[in-house]
Design a protein that fits this description.
This protein is α+β, with helices and mostly antiparallel strands. It contains 11 helices and 9 strands. It has 3 domains: about 120 residues, Orthogonal Bundle (Butyryl-Coa Dehydrogenase, subunit A, domain 1); about 110 residues, Butyryl-CoA Dehydrogenase, subunit A, domain 2 (Beta Barrel); about 150 residues, Up-down Bundle (Butyryl-CoA Dehydrogenase, subunit A, domain 3). Helix 3 packs antiparallel against helix 4, helix 7 runs antiparallel to helix 10 and helix 8 runs antiparallel to helix 9. It starts with 19 loop residues before the first helix and ends in a 6-residue tail after the last helix. The relative contact order is 0.11. InterPro entries: ACX4-like (IPR045008), Acyl-CoA_DH_CS (IPR006089), Acyl-CoA_Oxase/DH_mid-dom (IPR006091), Acyl-CoA_Oxase/DH_mid-dom_sf (IPR046373), AcylCo_DH-like_C (IPR036250), AcylCo_DH/oxidase_C (IPR009075), AcylCoA_DH/ox_N (IPR013786), AcylCoA_DH/ox_N_sf (IPR037069).
Length: about 400
């Protein structure tokens, strides 16, 4: 009998849990991403420039509407489908998946969950069509992990307007977004509130962060809000404190876990293909025991990551996920991802630092996934409090 080579990194067949229709749709999306998005990805990453020509291509896929059926094609998708969609996006290119995720998950998620009905009807259709691109401004120059308690951006109400003053950092899409969800502390009641600030608002300046070694295509910005005036009608009416902000972050942490799996999976695919193609000492390097050991360790991590994220999405569907489970998934998958990309880069030897072989990009980009949406340490503290009942936060 001919030898069967297991090339699918989904070694235990988790994709088989999707419906036939969902698998067909994902295959069509993957083909589209490979054909329309991937060809521009490496050049954009190297240049640290955003390829604006991809926005109509993302819009054609209706990606922003998948998570919000009433503003998309009206067909609800399962949480598991959403997870595999995140995987496919990051497998194509991590930076462009972040562009999509910031817009769809953070910005649209904040508005969908925090806006009243009039506001949702005003903003969500255009964002679902990607006619208006969103950003999410929470992190500050002096407040990353401690942004909840240490937020310095303030909001002061004056009649029917709010005056925002402060600074934000690491704001994805921040240099070109049409709508920016800005989080600020109300000086009157000390509660965090959300505001939608339009592009070009007087007093708002955005400066691109230069010199990044990861997610270079993502246009992260430093924002300065110098007495930016926002009408009360543009304050997210259902946001009453940081707990509401945290709900958005808990939802997107699950997406980061899936994205981390996608980074690891693609690094493994590149390494596995290179191992059977690259010859040294007269035979493929994949025939050497030490190389096979690296590949199997990568695949083992990926298989474990699949188990975590698939189960997390089952819990999401049942309404039982919770911030602690999302935190554990994020901490676990990003740690395992970091191991996988390091082993993959090692397998490539010197070629592993050249963009031509692509693994270098995934190796570098993994560092950003490891840090954002809560560091491993912060997510560990969330889980630690859950299992002991005791807070270890400083």
């Amino acid at each position: 009998m001919p030898r069967t080579v297991q090339t699918d990194p989904d070694f235990f067949g988790y994709a088989e849990l999707l419906s036939d229709a969902e698998r067909t749709e994902l295959a069509e999306i993957r083909d589209y991403l490979e054909r329309e998005i991937k060809p521009v990805a490496n050049a954009a990453w190297e240049a640290a420039e955003f390829p604006f020509e991809v926005i109509p291509k993302f819009a054609e896929l209706r990606l922003a509407g998948y998570h919000y059926p009433e503003f998309g094609d009206g067909r609800p998708r399962s949480p598991l489908f959403s997870g595999f969609l995140s995987l496919e996006l990051v497998r194509t290119d991590p930076s462009l998946s972040i562009f999509s995720g910031v817009h769809t998950g953070l910005a649209m998620g904040s508005i969908n969950g925090g806006a009243d009905e009039e506001q949702r009807r005003r903003w969500m259709p255009g964002m679902a069509a990607m006619d208006a691109i969103g950003a999410f401004a929470l992190t500050e120059p002096e407040g990353g992990s401690d942004v909840a308690g240490g937020m310095r951006t303030t909001a002061r109400r004056e009649g029917d307007e709010w005056v925002l003053r402060g600074a934000k950092r690491w704001i994805g899409n921040g240099t070109f977004a049409d709508l920016i969800v800005v989080w600020a502390r109300d000086v009157a009641d000390d509660q965090v509130k959300g505001f939608v600030v339009g592009k070009g608002a007087p007093g708002l300046t955005a400066s691109k962060i230069e010199g990044k070694i990861a997610l270079r295509t993502v246009q992260n910005a430093d924002l300065v809000l110098d007495d930016v005036r926002v009408p009360e009608a543009d304050r997210l009416q259902r946001i009453n404190g940081f707990r509401d902000t945290a709900k958005v972050l808990a939802a997107t942490r699950g997406g980061v876990a899936w994205s981390s799996l996608g980074v690891a999976l693609r690094a493994y695919e590149l390494a596995r293909d290179y191992a059977v193609r690259r010859e040294q000492f007269g035979k493929p390097i994949g025939s050497y025991q030490m190389v096979q050991d690296l590949l199997v360790k990568m695949l083992s991590n990926i298989t474990a990551m699949f188990g975590v994220v698939v189960r997390l999405n089952e819990l999401v569907a049942q309404g039982r996920a919770g911030a602690d489970r999302a935190a554990l998934a994020k901490a676990f998958t990003t740690t395992r991802m970091r191991e996988v990309v390091a082993w993959a880069r090692e397998l490539f030897g010197g070629n592993g630092i050249v963009l031509e072989h692509e693994v270098a990009k995934f190796f570098a980009d993994a560092e950003a996934f490891y840090s954002f949406e809560g560091t491993r340490e912060m997510n560990t503290l969330i889980v630690g409090k859950s299992i002991t009942g005791l807070s270890a936060f400083a």
